[in-house]
Amino acid sequence: MTDAAADSPATPPPSPWERERPARTHAAPARTPLSRERVVEAAFAVLDRQGLDGLSMRQVAAELGVTVSALYAHVHSKDDLLELMYTRLFDGFEVPEADPERWQEQLLDFARAGRQRLLSHRDMARISMAHVPFTAELLPHVEGLLAIFRTAGLPDRIAAEAGGLISTYIDGFVLEEGMWQDRAAQQGGDASSLARPDWREMAGEMQNYFASLPEANFPHLRALSGLMVTDSSDERFDIGLQIILRGLASYLPDQPDRPVPDD
Amino acid sequence: MTDAAADSPATPPPSPWERERPARTHAAPARTPLSRERVVEAAFAVLDRQGLDGLSMRQVAAELGVTVSALYAHVHSKDDLLELMYTRLFDGFEVPEADPERWQEQLLDFARAGRQRLLSHRDMARISMAHVPFTAELLPHVEGLLAIFRTAGLPDRIAAEAGGLISTYIDGFVLEEGMWQDRAAQQGGDASSLARPDWREMAGEMQNYFASLPEANFPHLRALSGLMVTDSSDERFDIGLQIILRGLASYLPDQPDRPVPDD
DNA sequence: TATCTTGATGAACAGCGTTCACTGGATGAG
DNA sequence: CTCATCCAGTGAACGCTGTTCATCAAGATA
Question: Which positions does the record tag as DNA-binding (chains A, B) (predicted)?
């Protein structure tokens, strides 16, 4: 909206110098020109509707009401598009400034927020898994993580691995979440249950399955059947993360309660 | 070799009752009949030669000198084939019997052996990542891991997560290894270097890239440039694993040197 | 007004997973 | 010995995929 038309009462007549959008004598009603951003946006729409396996260039083009080949003017290839989606997913994702006193909470928040981003679009973990975050847009995030580790006092060799370890954990966890979800969706494959697959039911089935295993061969799986697949993944996510965080903490040179380990 | 023909001097005439192999009047020289096993075997051959992206049913069929549709008599679908490859990869993969005194070494060995299996075929981590190990063939491995965790004294909630955590770490690490390898291969894309991509060179390039980042924005990445991508991935793999193991160890109720944590 | 640029078109190519009517050679029965 | 049966493997087809390229209409520029 231009400022020239802002204070006119309603439907101002087109001023000849303003040269408004030509309204396209054709059928297409004033379509906004294609852009890389719009292609990525449409790709997300298709992804959420059809999943990664249903995300084809033709579907994206259809979403935009445009031919396939038109996409290639804005996107180099499908892999390129996926990479754009990947980096765009973490747009505005900020790693907090390192605070040595709160490094564990900061990492917990970071991981939770990262998981939420991955959960915000279907099959996003699969896309994320296929990319190394060493692109120009994602490097600040890596740097931010390293800052937290190093100012917390972790040895450099540990800090260098910790970022990848945590990122891999997040990706892997959400990936597994998605796989359960997909399996639940295609099992109770009615059209009605496609929208919200009955995840609780599938979790119960898995628990029953584990509990039904022969005691002689699978005593531990039976014993933990109630814990392997739980209703809320949030708890499980935090537990795995805590394991990593406590592992990292064990490398801090001066623990408050404990003597320094000589490693 | 039958015992009837064992003591004849050389090229014994075909005894009519023995009904030896009909020797196939046609061109095809006594081709062994197709089988699920042979299909999987051929799929591995194609995978190692062409990578996962080049692994198509048609290529597998060509590897066997057979039409595509012939495969579908032995394999339900391509996904089915991939799952067969996945479970077959861990054929004979034994988790040692749990020894509470050596649980950390046992897990270290397990993880290293798992990584070696994944490295034994190209792109195998990508396939592994797409599968949950809760199939009948892989359940004993899960059980074996749980046994190690529980007899070591880990709380059940921790034990239930530890297996997935370690498996995810192995998969993720090898996946990343493969991605670097692929990138190195397609960068120095000469036919000569395709066989053994110059991995050292690419590692050096990445180190230089990190070291060349602006000091103001990326002090930590610069400082750790020599550690983020190293020549031998083995060290890096062990370090990440040690972080996890020390995290797990922190949940043991009675540490030798330390007071029990109240969690 | 004539030329150039730009963005979208639609047809085409090679390859993909999967299905299905079919066939040719081996097997077993009468 | 002949016939019927069976079955593994065939080849063509369907609809889909990612990608390329000559074409074209329309707006901008000279």
Answer: 56-75
Whats the size of chain B, residue-wise? 263
A243–B247 CB contact, under 8 Å: yes
Q: Which class is domain A32-89?
A: mainly alpha
pLDDT of residue B1 exceeding 50, the answer is no
Q: At what angle do helices A103-119 and A156-187 cross, to 10 degrees?
A: 30
Interatomic separation, CA of residue B35 and C1' of nucleotide C29, rounded (Å) = 29
Domain boundaries, chain A: 32-89, 100-249
* Contact residues on chain A for B233, CB-CB shorter than 8 A: none
What is the least distance, in Å, from the CA of A227 to any CA of chain B? Answer: 6
Record: contact A251-B243, CB cut-off 8 A:
yes
Count of Cβ atoms closer than 10 Å to residue A2 Cβ: 7
Residue A186's Cβ-side half-sphere holds a number of Cα atoms within 13 Å equal to 6
Residue A68 CA to C4 C1' — how many Å?
26
Contact between residue B218 and residue B225 where contact means Cβ atoms under 8 Å apart: no
Backbone angles phi, psi at A216, to 5 degrees: -65, -40
Per the structure block, which two tokens stand in for A238?
A: 């935090």
pLDDT per residue as tens digits for the range B116-146: 999 999 999 999 999 999 999 999 999 999 9
CA distance A186 to A209: 18
The shortest C-alpha distance from B211 to chain A (Å) reads 13
Residue B15 structure tokens: 């005894």
DSSP state of A19: -
State the Rg of chain B over Cα: 25
Judge if the beta carbon of B53 is closer than 7 A to nucleic acid strand D: no
Over the stretch A88-136, which tens digit does the pLDDT of each residue have?
A: 999 999 999 999 999 999 999 999 999 999 999 999 999 999 999 999 9
**What is the CATH architecture of B31-89?**
Orthogonal Bundle (1.10)
Enumerate residues 6+ apart whose C-beta is below 8 A from B51.
Answer: B122, B123, B182
Q: Among partner residues A139, A164, A206, which is closest to B221 by beta-carbon distance? A: A139
User: Which class in CATH covers the domain with range A100-249?
Assistant: mainly alpha
Report chain A residues whose CB lies below 8 A from the CB of B130. 126, 179
Place of tokens 């797409």: B130
Please indicate whether, in this complex, the C-beta atoms of B159 and A224 are within 8 angstroms of each other: yes
> How far does Cα B234 stand from its chain's mean position?
15
Nucleotide nearest to B80 (CA to C1'): C17
Is residue B139 a contact partner of residue A218, using CB atoms and an 8 Å limit? Answer: yes
CA torsion angle B220 B172 A79 A65 (round to 10): -110
